[in-house]
Amino acid sequence: MGKRGRELVGPKVDELIADLQSAYADEWIAFYYYKLAAELAEGINSQIVAEKFDKIAAEELEHAEELAERITQLGGEPVRDFEKIVSTAGCKKVKLPKNNKDYKGFLKAGIEAEQCAIAAYEKILDKLKTDIKDPITFHVIRHIMQEEVEHEDEFEGLLD
């Protein structure tokens, strides 16, 4: 990262990178479980549920890419070892139902995962508002958080 860019973030750049790495890991976990949910869902509403999980999985992967880009810009690097994804993540698992016909269970799992992501991004945004002044990362995180709120709403809409 350039000198002025580093000055912009200040002395807590490593702390910010660690937070972003955790969020990056969360996005990979969500991507994996959402793609799995899209494949596993069976029953009367399975096509609608599968399509929603597949669409949102693609957006979670996009979030991981955005975070990886920002981590790199800040002088860090995304988590390299896939084994470390879970230990780095704050949202370690999406609790899919055992019954593949339990479409409500799939949707509830998605809602819970999105709520975890929203909480994680809220913490990062709070730091960026008060402790670490980085308008670029703030914009990236705010954008991703907005989409996570939309995902929660989409899952809840299907649950109703």
Rg over CA atoms, rounded to whole Å, is 17 Å
CATH hierarchy: architecture: Up-down Bundle
Name of the top-level CATH class? Mainly Alpha
Quaternary structure of the protein: single chain
Count of separate DSSP helical elements: 6
For the record, the count of structural domains works out to: 1
| Shape call | elongated
CATH topology assignment: Ferritin
What are the low-pLDDT stretches, counting only 5+ consecutive residues below 50? none
CATH superfamily: Ferritin, core subunit, four-helix bundle
State the separation between the terminal residues, measured CA to CA. 46 Å
> Which band does the percent of strand residues land in?
under 5%
Mean pLDDT: 94
Largest sheet: none
Q: Which secondary-structure class do the elements indicate?
A: mainly alpha
Structure report:
Helix content is 76%, strand content 0%. It is mostly helical and 160 residues long. The chain has one domain: Ferritin, CATH 1.20.1260.10. Helix 3 runs antiparallel to helix 6. The longest helix has 28 residues, at 13-40. The protein is elongated and about 55 Å long. The N and C termini lie far apart (46 Å).
